[in-house]
Amino acid sequence: MLSAFKSCADSFERHYPSLPTPFGREQYETWYNVELAIRKFDRIFNRVEKFNARKFNDPDNHERREKRMLERKRQRVVDNYTIYFGRLTEEEMQYRDYFESDLEHDPENEQFEELSDKASMAHSGQFNPKLFDFIDANVAMNIPETHENYDDIVEDKLFKYRYRQNADSAPVFNKRMERVRSRFMERAKSRDPAIDKLLWPTFVELEKNTMIGNLVLNREKFVDSAADATTAHREYMAREGVQQYRDYYESDAEEQGFFEYLDNLPNRDRIRFMEAFKDFTVQEGDGKGLAMIPKREFNPEISAF
């Protein structure tokens, strides 16, 4: 019976192909981000459950692992003032300390897991933009009204580039991204050396210049010093964003007409292509870490506290 139903459905689709489903772009992006968030939440929930049930997962090694975790916790909480970076928490550090040997054998990489989630969602086919007719949905006087999407052409192209992995097959996507990456690395060899300089000293200087004291006592030093110092970075990101878009769709016949317009973009639209920019020379990471400042020994001759 199921085979008969499937045969009828396949025959119907061949003779009457389904039309794209009317859907809003905001709803599509929300749906996509919610699916990513659910997958991430599931991983975190499973880790929490694993940690809460640690006594039963490996009873032979539980005492040794628990002792190691509590000793390191005491070092961070009792013996030192601990500062956490990159949204790292004490609870996560306890998880890492307890399952240290397991994580060494099978590391947990959030960046890799997110890439895997995106590849899995693209492989499912349900997020393929070709399945949807993107429209703007307005509700006036409780009567739903739909009309065509009147977004400008740049927003249309950026939306297409943003979800290119869902529209292209895995071999095509990987081939095109490899072309984007290799050409970017080749251009990066001759780029302005100012691009490779660290920006944190610039923003430290900005914080000093924009202090309230300068505003009150020395207005000449109260300036936005970071604006000029980051001009090269912003221009580079806008220029490279356009170039990476061109590199990805170089072999796409549908985009050839848009490339002529791409060469003459006004500054406002060129800046918007910064969204397509990615610096492949920057090592990706979650930035999680901690710093411990040892506590001083209590000296009653100095203070009562």
Arithmetic mean of pLDDT: 86
Q: Output the structural class.
A: mainly alpha
The shape, in one word, is: flat
Helices and strands, in order, run as HEHHHEHHHEEHHHHHHHHHE
Fraction of residues in β-strands: 5-15%
Oligomerization status of the protein chains: single chain
Query: How many individual β-strands?
Result: 5
| Biggest sheet layout | 3 strands, mixed
Number of domains: 2
What distance lies between the first and last C-alpha atoms, to the nearest angstrom? 81 Å
Low-confidence stretches: 139-143, 146-150
Estimate the helix proportion, in percent. 55-70%
CA radius of gyration:
27 Å
Task: Please give the order of strands in the largest beta sheet.
Answer: 1-3-4
The number of helices is 16
Structure, explained:
There is one protein chain. The strands form two sheets. Strands 1-3-4 form a three-stranded mixed β-sheet. A two-stranded antiparallel ribbon has the order 2-5. 60% of the residues lie in helices and 10% in strands. The chain has two domains: 132 residues, no CATH class; 133 residues, no CATH class. The chain contains 16 helices and five strands. The chain starts with a helix and ends in an 11-residue tail after the last strand. About 3% of the residues have low confidence. The chain is flat and about 90 Å long.
